Amino acid sequence: MSLGKGLGRGFESLIPTELIDEEFDPTAKEDKDNSELKKLKISDIIRDENQPRRDFDEDAINALATSIKEHGVLQPIVVTKEDGKYKIVAGERRWRASKIAGLDKIPAIIRTLDSQNRLELSIIENAQREDLNAIELATAYAKLKTQFNLSTADIAAKVGKSEASIQGTMRLLNLPDDVKKIMVKEKLTEGVMRPLATSDESIIKKVLPKIIKEGWTARKVERYLQDNKKKSSAALIKKHESHKDEDALSKKFGVTVKISGRSLTFKCKNTTELKSLIKTLL
Questions:
Q1: Strands (E), 159-255
Q2: Which of 18, 43, 109, 135 has the fewest CB neighbours in a 10 Å radius?
């Protein structure tokens, strides 16, 4: 979901749209009814003292602060209101980094504790439905992770699946947006699409029509990617060898040498250098 989409399209620019897209969020409507997105004063926000995580990598926080200075806070934190303050549910790293960056305010999704708990239960229930497509399922997992401060292990325990399964499904969110839509429209399986989640977009666009038209299996997709990787590696090795040969020939003849396919080109700076090269070759 782009949570911005769930809470009003004016907020789209605040968060990475590739993370959670309302189109695939099974609880988008309920979220919209129970959430408010505002910019809050950082001084009005407090950490949850019951939050088990207390150690934060200082270098990582400083790096995030640098990014926030340049780009702003791209993804709102999630808070609940308590005694006139706003307690952090998810996003403490962003809050800490924003303070270092010198921000006065930060975008935050505000929910009551009851609505937060109800929404979490609703997402978990939806994640256990058999009629959800894989992208909707991945979106539900991502929402639990980023807005409810749940680890992958926590999500796995709550929905009754393995941690590896959760991680594998969530990788589908790395697919380009248009590919996700095609996946849903064509009813392509998670198994077939998962190998593409870490591939370059150009490769995905090249193989996707074949998957649809020829009904490729997950194994065939994996073989295709492996073969493509081998070809790319072979090309890199060949290019490296060509560079070594170019350097050796350039040193031997004292001119610039280029190898392209089956062609060998000598580049001379001037007529004197050309005459000297011809004399050497003859």
A1: none
A2: 43
